[in-house]
Amino acid sequence: MEEADLDWVVDKASELLYDKVKEGPLKEEDVDLAYVMIAERRLKKMFESSSSGGIYEDAREEVMSRLRKIALKLNDEYWDA
Fold first, then answer.
1. How far apart are CA 20 and CA 32, in angstroms?
2. What is the pLDDT of residue 51?
3. Domain residue limits at 64
4. At 77, is the secondary structure helix, strand, or coil?
5. Average pLDDT for residues 48-67, to the nearest whole number?
6. In whole angstroms, what is the distance from residue 16 CA to residue 33 CA?
7. Tens of pLDDT, residues 7-17
8. 14: closest CA among 37, 46, 47?
């Protein structure tokens, strides 16, 4: 998987976080929601032709890590948390 593919998935999923942070500080549940609603389907589609589940899990962890960082940054910007 290309880094650009992961960047695109993170960008799409983070759009939900950018909208949700206006309602209140983001929590881990919000990151999970962004992953499940947006990123999970896209990642699975990227890996459906691949026989290695480990690569999918690595990509999942990378996306979740990036979404957590974005959530922390957004909380700092919007809520000074």
1. 13
2. 62
3. 3-79
4. helix
5. 84
6. 9
7. 999 999 999 99
8. 37
